[in-house]
Amino acid sequence: MAFVKMTAAQVARKVIENQPLFILDVRNTDAYEDWRIEGHNFDYLNIPYFDLLDGVEEILPKLPAEKDILVVCAKEGSSLMVAEMISDAGRDVYYLEGGMKSWSSYLEPIKVGDLTGGGELYQFVRLGKGCLSYMVISEGEAAIIDAVRFTDVFTNFAKEKNVEIKHVFDTHLHADHISGGRHIAEATGATYYLPAKDAEEVIFDYTPLEDGLTVKIGASQIEVGALYSPGHTIGSTSFIVDGKYLLTGDILFIDSIGRPDLAGLAEDWVGDLRDTLYRRYRELAEDLIVLPAHFMIIEELNEDGTVAKRLGDLFAENHGLNIESEDEFRHTVTDNLPPQPNAYEQIRQVNMGKISPGNDEQTEMEIGPNRCAVR
After folding, report:
1. Nearest 5 degrees, angle CA 47-CA 52-CA 54?
2. What confidence tens digit (pLDDT) does each residue in 215-245 have?
3. At the fourth CATH level, which superfamily is domain 3-103?
């Protein structure tokens, strides 16, 4: 029988297309319980690698005959060895190429919709981390919002689309993942925008992102307009694209709302968060399609793999938008904060330009799920 590698891209298609998969995760139990590959139609078995060193005979009856079996570990080596043992026992099996390290870094570009004059809006879905980045394309030009650190994905996609990256935005100073924004701007000559209120400790040059700023993309002049929306950070800024889409950064998600504590100022910023969600956003058109910078659970994905929902529907369905009492809102936000993201303070330092860790260290900083939402 054979053991064959499966790439992160192939696993992503199984997630998006709702295909069945059985995952044998051989990482330690604590790592598995903290973070795993999520799929609508996936089944799981977690047996640490060291429990399988004497053989896989005891787990063979637990492996289904009718589903693809994928063995997963942190970096690949352990899953490769376990897959080989399962193959030697007479079963077909796959192992994840590059392990969870590769899963954490994979981005799947998905078209969200068409824009004025033949333009397009793409969402880059980082399934292993829950990060969402965006590219607005129009007539040879592009703007990028909330790019993650894998800059080649964005520059190569722009080349495929034959567009020049002119503008790069970060909605806020990120704390859960390393931004690729300024590096893309440096590589392409694009203008890099960052909210000035989040950039007091930044040590590189940037263009201040101010409320009401409007950038126009392509000859058809697709508008990307900035809306000051503090609460997750004091500088958090949303974008309205082509009058159709509301990019909310980490302020509003499909299933939750943003946490205000990643700079240690939860009590100070919770009022700003409520004001943004209950006043600023309430003044917007309910037909706007909300596109957040993160998702938390696999159920937030639509059938096409995008993470998007009408603002009016969120007003009706999202619990964080339906807490009438300000005191209850404050307690809901400050009493239900999940653990801080992995290495969040170091990640903030990277995004300020104060430290420049190598690629392997950056990978370790980002390992694990995003934790930008209130539970």
Report:
1. 160
2. 999 988 999 999 999 999 999 999 999 999 9
3. Rhodanese-like domain (3.40.250.10)
Short-list 122, 194, 202, 191, CA closest to 156: 122
Which tens digit of pLDDT belongs to each residue from 321-357?
999 999 999 888 888 777 777 788 899 999 999 999 9
CATH 3.60.15.10 placement within the chain: 107-366
Q: Which helix (H) or strand (E) holds 263?
A: none
Residue with the two structure tokens 């690729």:
180
| Distance from C-alpha of 141 to C-alpha of 128, rounded to nearest angstrom | 29
Tell me which CATH code domain 107-366 carries: 3.60.15.10
Pairing of strands 93-96, 69-72: parallel
3-state secondary structure of 155: helix
Q: Known catalytic residues?
A: 73
* Six token digits for residue 242: 């082509």
In the chain, the amino acid numbered 159 is K
Q: State the first-to-last Cα distance of the chain, in angstroms, to the nearest integer.
A: 44
DSSP 8-state assignment for residue 139: T
3-state secondary structure at position 304: coil
Pick from 226, 235, 145, 250: which is nearest to 196 by CA? 235
